[in-house]
Amino acid sequence: MTRAAILAAGIAATLAFGALWHGPLGAADRFATRADKIARATLDYYELPAVSARLERHPFVRRMILSGPADSFQRSELLRIMGQVPGVNEVRWDPASLPQEAR
What predicted TM-score, i.e. pTM, was given to this entire model? Predict the structure, then answer.
């Protein structure tokens, strides 16, 4: 077997294992469920029951989307706080969710 064939086989095996791990083996769902629970507990701790957080469920995306009524201070602080949830790479507010002062 040539060096290129071995490299191609290794890349194919890695991609196949990654697809299985994030799909049928359920690691991505476990990760998203854990992050969603931590986010909900954080929002409950700060007494923001009307604000919701959800992790986008696209392959290899670790972005949390926040929505609900919050003033500008709460919005900026929630971006910072939710960015500390383990595994979350980015936090954004839903564009349809306007700041509370604008309503």
Answer: 0.70
